Here is the input.
Amino acid sequence: MTKTLNARAWELIEKPLGNPGEFKAIVEELACGTRILDFGVKAEGSLAAGLLLSRVCMSGLAEISLLNGKIDAVSWPMVQVTTDFPKQACLLSQYAGWEVKTDSYFAMGSGPMRANAGREEIFKQLDYREQHHYAVGVLEADKLPDTQTAQEIAAKANVEPGNLVLIVAPTASLAGSLQINARSVETALHKLHELNFDISRIVSATGIAPLSPVADNALAAIGRTNDSILYGGQVTLYVRGDDESLEQIGPKVPSNSSADYGKPFEQIFRDVNCDFYQIDPMLFSPAQIIFQNIDTGRVQWFGETNENLLKESFGIQLNSTSKD
Here is the structure.
């Protein structure tokens, strides 16, 4: 990998910056020079915007596409992610590890701007840091950032405000939902990292999760997008090394290993007064994980999808006619 993460992401955003209408997006420039790509706040957004947003989150190191699948008897779109650089794409770029918080603004930040800032512990643990003169970030938020927020982000990312581009999409939007549904592999890697698994053993990965329906409010959207991964996410990791360690860690990886498993996420969230920190962190992982050991040829799988909970979360009701 010769280019920095931010350089890769910058190439991806040149097209929407020049022609935002193609993505049903809006470009705004703040007084400080930071450009904002609105993918769903004031703008309508689109599936194309969601796919691009997901690729930017992963710094262009993953292929992301929509496939046709099923939830029970209902035809349903699925978000597939494939990467040969899982550590860089997922943990060093896509993971929403930057809590953007000012007096007037809050958002969860992801994308390669995190690597330029290097403020999170994970960058020390994985020994990675960038010093690129441009930075690209993704904000999960219901409103656009103001000049003060952009200036603070730029300062932490070590770039001039004019060299910063922020892409914003609410969870309750087409683009926002899709980019969260594209985190099946990322949640698996982050869970394994938290379990002290050697991430360098993972050479390639692919994952799939249902495209959650756009909700009419933020809380319902948080519920549906999480349920997509927790109860519908399936991830295959291509690994090297021994089989015994995979056999030992495997049962701890899927979401059903958590005591909080078994209810729609919106209900889980409400039960803890909407405090993420009161939820078992081990819940945040895909429903099923498959290890394919390319050294030994052994395949091991753990966990399973839960279509009943997906139908409840997504509002899918099957009548006798649709079942026939």
User: Anything to note?
Assistant: Confidence is low (pLDDT under 50) at residues 320-324. The first strand starts at residue 26 and ends at 29. The CA atoms of residues 181 and 202 lie 21 Å apart. The domain at 5-320 is CATH 3.30.1030.10 (Methenyltetrahydromethanopterin Cyclohydrolase; Chain A, domain 2).
